[in-house]
Write a structure and sequence with these properties.
Rossmann fold, 304 residues, 16 strands, Ubiquitin-like (UB roll), 9-stranded mixed sheet, alpha/beta, single chain, 3-stranded mixed sheet
């Protein structure tokens, strides 16, 4: 005899009564919603694209200030080129509200190595205004050896000299003769128009130059040699035993191994004390060479 079992403690899950047509309609609604969103987005993009091309929003000219006519012409052409076309084929690059300042500045800086900084903005006359700050020469670097005559450094015409900026980068050929107003370096191992010198080293040399001159020592030039060796050229004038006026150049040897700051301090102290001692005797000594490369010891040789 078959007996009916007691009610099961586990209830069965209700079976979904949704038909296949209901599921299909729901999928169709999702697709229509997605399609509608895409169309709406496209219409918005098209509308914004049209607005971006409105003439009243357009940059129509380029004005350049702070540089000469030739460089200004190149800058104007580069900026105009950077404003051509559109972003993604939709938005005008020349729109005053969405133009790429970074791209324009980069294009401008590539036109000339003389440019230190370029600033751009749009004025109320729909013009892109470019203001240029040009580099200032902080020194001259010559790819040659110095020339001496009768123990005196001769600053002469040299076609291998270049102006360098404060970072030690060459940016312009120097005229054949520029006088002695700028700091001067001789770097015979220099590659063509490239100062292959680390910026920290160049900045150290510049500071040494400035501090030596500030101490009243007439520094003329520095020779940059391999392996961190240098020669500083200092002019002097004195009188010999016959009281005839003589002049020449003292060669000061120093290097990076002993530390430029230490050697510079030793040199300034030595020079000041020697000059002061000579003046108390009514003398004006002239040094043939001074060597700072041996710690706190300063070796020197006087001219005969």
């Amino acid at each position: 005899m078959i007996r009916r079992s007691a009610s099961s403690p586990h209830r069965s899950r209700p079976v979904s009564r949704q038909s296949s047509s209901f599921t299909r309609r729901r999928s169709e609604k999702k697709l229509m919603l997605i399609a509608g969103s895409v169309i709406l987005l496209g219409l918005c993009m098209w509308g914004i694209s049209g607005i971006s091309r409105i003439e009243s929003f357009a940059i129509t000219s380029v004005e350049v200030y702070g540089t000469d006519t030739k460089v200004a012409s190149d800058i104007r052409a580069a900026a105009t080129e950077a404003l051509q076309g559109s972003y993604f084929g939709l938005f005008a690059r020349a729109n005053r509200f969405i133009y790429s300042r970074h791209s324009i500045v980069r294009a401008i800086e590539e036109t000339s190595s003389q440019i230190e900084r370029a600033e751009v903005k749009v004025n109320n006359q729909h013009a892109l205004v470019v203001t240029i700050t040009e580099k200032n020469a902080t020194a001259i670097v010559c790819g040659s050896l110095p020339n001496f005559e009768d123990n005196q450094l001769i600053i002469e015409e040299d076609a291998r000299c270049n102006f360098v900026d404060r970072g030690g980068r060459i940016f312009e050929k120097a005229p054949l003769f520029v006088g002695t107003a700028h700091k001067r370096y001789y770097f015979p191992d220099m590659k063509e128009d490239v100062l292959d010198l680390p910026q920290p080293e160049f900045e150290q040399l510049q500071k040494l130059y400035d501090d030596v001159r500030a101490a009243g020592i007439p520094a003329q030039a520095i020779l940059i040699k391999p392996e961190g060796e240098y020669e500083l050229y200092v002019s002097y004038s004195s009188t010999n035993s016959s009281e005839d006026a003589i002049s020449g150049t003292t060669i000061v040897y120093f290097n990076a191994l002993g530390g430029m700051e230490v050697e510079k301090a030793n040199f300034i102290s030595f020079w000041s004390s020697m000059i002061q001692a000579a003046r108390t005797k009514g003398e004006s000594p002239s040094f043939d060479s001074i060597d700072l490369r041996y710690g706190s010891n300063v070796f020197y040789r006087l001219n005969n």
